[in-house]
Design goal:
The protein is built from two helices and seven strands. The protein is mainly beta. It has a three-stranded antiparallel beta sheet with strand order 1-2-3, with no helix packed on it. The chain has a two-stranded antiparallel sheet with strand order 4-7. The radius of gyration is 17 Å and the shape is globular.
């Protein structure tokens, strides 16, 4: 948590040795709760102020163990592709899918 002048922010990631966005090497601090809605945003996981599950479905092996433990139906199988789909509006960040996922295709971002 960072606090300055009566404001506070929740740090969800610190990236060292950043060189992608311009010349030089720097440390980038990512904060939760960004109220801007930039079209080019590369960090949508930082928009909400509360913890949320972020799926990395490219890492998904299709074991579907996450489907068995999800209490809200936030994870379902697409009937056409048979791949796992994630509905973030149904997710309550209970972390059960994270614990059940062998390839670590889900992460909790605070």
């Amino acid at each position: 948590m960072i606090e300055e002048s009566g404001t506070s922010g929740v740090v969800y990631d610190i990236q060292r040795m950043s060189t992608c966005d311009g010349p030089g090497i720097r440390t980038t601090v990512f904060l939760k709760g960004c109220y801007l809605n930039c079209e080019w945003c590369h960090n949508p996981e930082g928009k909400r102020r509360y913890p949320e599950v972020i799926p990395y479905l490219n890492n998904c092996t299709g074991c579907k163990k996450c489907l068995d433990v999800c209490p809200t139906g936030a994870l379902v199988t697409d009937p056409l592709t048979r791949k796992v789909l994630f509905y973030d509006t149904k997710c309550i960040a209970c972390e059960l899918c994270i614990k059940a996922c062998p390839p670590r295709a889900m992460e909790l971002h605070f």
